[in-house]
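stuck on whats below:

***
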Amino acid sequence: MRHIVAIHQKTARIHRQICSSLDTSPRHCRSVRVTWRVFLAGGASTHTHALRGACCGLHPQDWLPGPGPFVFHDPSSPCILGTHHEKGAQTFWSVVNRLPLSSNAVLCWKFCHVFHKLLRDGHPNVLKDSLRYKNELSDMSRMWGHLSEGYGQLCSTYLTLLRTKMEYHTKNPRFPGNLQMSDRQLDEAGESDVNNFFQLTVEMFDYLECELNLFQTVFNSLDMSRSVSVTTAGQCRLAPLIQVILDCSHLYDYTVKLLFKLHSCLPADTLQGHRDRFMEQFTKLKDLFYRSSNLQYFKRLIQIPQLPENPPNFLRASALSEHISPVVVIPAEASSPDSEPVSEKDDLMDMDASQQNSFDSKFDDIFGSSSSSDPFNFNSQNGVNKDEKDHLIDQLYKEISGLKAQLENMKTESQRAVLQLKGRVSELEAELAEQQHLRQQAADESEFLRAELDELKKKREDTEKAQRSLTEIERKAQANEQRYSRLKEKYSELVQNHADLLRKNAEVTKQVSVARQAQVDLEREKKELEDSFQRISDQAQRKTQEQTEVLESLKQELATSKQELQIVQGSLETSAQSEAKWTAQIAELEKERGSLVNAVARQEEQLSALQEQLEYTQLKLSSTQESICQLAKDQRKILLAESRRAAEQVVQEALRQFEEPTLFSCAGSADHLLCKVRSVSSCIEQLEQCWSQYLACPEDISGLLHAVTLLAHLTSDTIVHGSTTCLRAPPEPADSLTEACKQYGRETLIYLGFLEEEGILEKADSTAVRSCLTRITAIGEELLPRGLDIKQEELGDLVDKELAATSAAIETATARIEEMLSKSRAGDTGVKLEVNERILGSCTSLMQAIQVLIVASKELQREIVESGRGTASPKEFYAKNSRWTEGLISASKAVGWGATVMVDAADLVVQGRGKFEELMVCSREIAASTAQLVAASKVKADKDSPNLAQLQQASRGVNQATAAVVASTVSGKLQIEDTDNMDFSSMTLTQIKRQEMDSQVRVLELENELQKERQKLGELRKKHYELAGVAEGWEEGTEASPPTLQEAVTEKE
């Protein structure tokens, strides 16, 4: 074989001489030398080391198995140059197929590195020539994947990356091997189609994922606790990562730009998966770049860029301007891993030169010398004529033909040897197939065992989860038991307090009963004493009267006696005996008179004793009465205080009902609330009367207690009905009614507080309570459903007036919108002007559609009146169908009112002081009102009427215009919000975490408020349709039923 090499080298020297004789230009000589070098590299030898060196420009020592790095200046540069000169990689693969890549992991790893560089920097035809070997690379990747130690997993991952790279560049031929493209070329690669950009982004994600897997696999195979980058084994594994870093930097840059482009064309929700996958790869790539930049091996070879602290915000279009493309810098002075290989390469070049000289000497021994006297040396024959040169060339061609014949003989012998080797290869392949079969069986058994192991692990995890769930359940059960124990203790305490209160009440009742019984006994004793006193008094009076009568009789007798005495004295002179007789009679009368006086004295002493006994009895009776009165007074105070506290508890419990969530399932009516308010007013009047009676007569407390209890319960009912009525009322009246009910409860508690002490009892004033009731009454009367207070004779004129007023309101709204648009164009610029023009333009379209609807409605009304009135006048027709007419009038008013409100909302939005949601709600309300107007018109219209069809067409136009308003408003809102995105560049991690927590709290609050507002909105709509049915005269069976929420939405759509 060395002879063959010598022959080729000698032939090359002959051709160099021919080159020098024919064309002495250096450029031409270089071309010939390169051509023959490639030729020699393709068929010079079948020796493995010689083929390696000829193909890749590597010396045999570079491909020796071992964990060391590439000990050469740039091992792949000759290969890269060879592919450019050859315009392909056939020679490369012809040599690679003879290398033991399936048995030597280190050799396979170095092959992957060189092939990666060829794909990046070699000729574009390298990819085409390599596609036929893609399946072989896949099989080799699966084969090395079964080896979990050493370079097995590294080779498997690297081969997977190379195959992915080949597939990516095959699908996307616009991308060069080194992935260097401009932004314009990147746009051209997607062909301005969002679907192509979407698919291209997915393929880039897959490509970058393979790059990151190789990155991670290499780092996992290294012991990062030591300085592995300065060891030969570590450098051997880290060397290919330079190509990976170059690919990753470009892929990351292109991915960011494509995602921004996709977010400008597609909704954010559609690209949620892209953003999640980008965030995952961004975190990995940032960590791997950071770890690589800290390795000493890379610091001398490459400058690795650092990714930003935070990933790009694709939801903010302006963030693209903040994106900086990562640039990998390879210093010119750091083109080799080590400085030692340079001298080693010189030694190898010297060795090659010595081998070349030996080959030349052997060639001279066989074919003769090629010195200056040699006829093949054309450099010393410049003066020979043309015929001699031709003769010399012919002679050389003959020699070349002889050499080719010898070469063919050698090829025949080598083919025979190849056949023998192929037979041996077949035997070895059979053995290898058997070994692979055994390995496959072992792999299947390993997979089966691995599956069983995974199943056991899963069962163990399920058992652990069940154990954790059981522990959690036990903990919750224990907590529930503790909570139940506390509730039970609280309930026992409440029961005990209730029992104590009942016992105290029983004792108080018993004391009152005893006091009342004692009072009854005292009254009975008093009555008996009064009776006995009356009897004694009567007896003493009778005796006194008798004595008085005796005294009177005695006085009369004395007068008589005196008269007789005078008669006797007159007749003394006549008779002494009769004088003595009369004297004796006088003495007897005087004696009798003394005895009577003594009897009267004794009677007076008995009377004074009786009077003293009466006074003592009266004193005892008065003290007993005072104690009874004090006891009764205390009992009345206790009863009044307990009644007041019970009343306050009832009122406070009613006030707490405002916070109960179960109240949302209830609903009240305004008329019921007004009925309760009237009952409370009459109860307050009754309480004031009982209050006055109690102040006049404190003993009469029953009426006051009854009035206080009744007031507490009526107040509680009023507050509860007020709170339930708020659920069906509009927001502003509902808030006013809620505040009024709460204020009424507080004023009632203050009013009842005057019952606590007697000193302030007279100062009690119910003016504040009555004012709260008056306020509740006014709000309740506003919430009562009202119909149109219109005389039937005026309905006909009112329909035309309302339609005309609606048309005028629409025209006024259109003029205002045009005026606002003119002002916006004069004062606004940029995004704000664009948003305002789009919103106001859609509002103008909506006004025009409503105007068309009003005209169609007028024509249909005229047709209905003409077809349904008969001989009657239009006014009589409207008066006859008064309820239908009222519904039509209400719908017309709603349309005009909605247009006015929408224009006001649009004005505020244009000025920057309004909300986009108000504009969307107003447009939807207009659509609902027009749907109501259409429904009211359809009731009396003929279903085949062309005017009805025209009205329905106009209604659909209104719905489309409403949708346009909503769409433009939503688009404008998003566009405004995009310009107001938050800037996180100046925020720290703690601030971002704080704002994230605040945002989560705000989200929970808004979700809770949204749920409550939805419930409230449902109740409001329900009440609205109930009130609309009463106000607009919908009757079941004869008139149009009120449209439900689903019907309104369907009509709107």
DSSP finds 30 helices and no strands in the chain. The mean pLDDT is 74. Residues 803-1052 form a domain with the I/LWEQ domain fold (CATH 1.20.1410.10).
